[in-house]
């Protein structure tokens, strides 16, 4: 199995992953977000969540006033 650039598990010579590691490894060109329906948070695809074991995920939303919002979640809770 190929080793990941970082891991969410401590020990075995791997560093503990931080949200900064997650953020630094995001590649905008490989991510796909969805802005509809308006007012509903939607999962982003291609945001490295598999390499974090799902510890961190990203969601997007467009508000009724046409603002675009993005949030990072840790274990399903906003950080």
Protein architecture, described:
The protein is mainly beta. The chain has a domain at 28-78. The protein has one helix at residues 19-24, and strands at 42-43, 56-62, 68-74, 77-78. A four-stranded antiparallel beta sheet has the order 1-2-3-4, with no helix packed on it. Strand 3 (68-74) and strand 4 (77-78) form a beta hairpin. Residues 1-21 are annotated as: Disordered.
Shape: elongated
> Over the alpha carbons, how many angstroms does the gyration radius reach?
14 Å
Order of helices and strands: HEEEE
SS element count, helices: 1
Strand order of the largest sheet: 1-2-3-4
Provide mean pLDDT, rounded.
Answer: 81
* Contiguous uncertain segments of 5+ residues: 1-11
Strand content: 15-25%
Number of strands: 4
Structural class: mainly beta
Largest sheet: 4 strands, antiparallel
Distance between the termini: 31 Å
Short description:
Helices cover 8% and strands 23% of the residues.
Layout of helices and strands, plus pairs?
Elements: H1 19-24, E1 42-43, E2 56-62, E3 68-74, E4 77-78
Antiparallel strand pairs: 1-2, 2-3, 3-4
Features:
79 residues; mainly beta
């Amino acid at each position: 199995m190929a080793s990941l650039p970082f891991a969410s598990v401590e020990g075995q010579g791997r560093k503990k992953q931080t949200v900064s590691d997650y953020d630094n490894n995001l590649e905008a060109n490989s991510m796909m977000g969805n802005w509809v329906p308006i007012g509903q948070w939607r999962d982003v695809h291609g945001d490295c969540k598999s390499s974090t074991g799902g510890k961190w995920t990203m969601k997007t939303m467009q508000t009724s006033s046409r603002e675009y919002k993005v949030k990072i979640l840790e274990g399903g809770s906003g950080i």
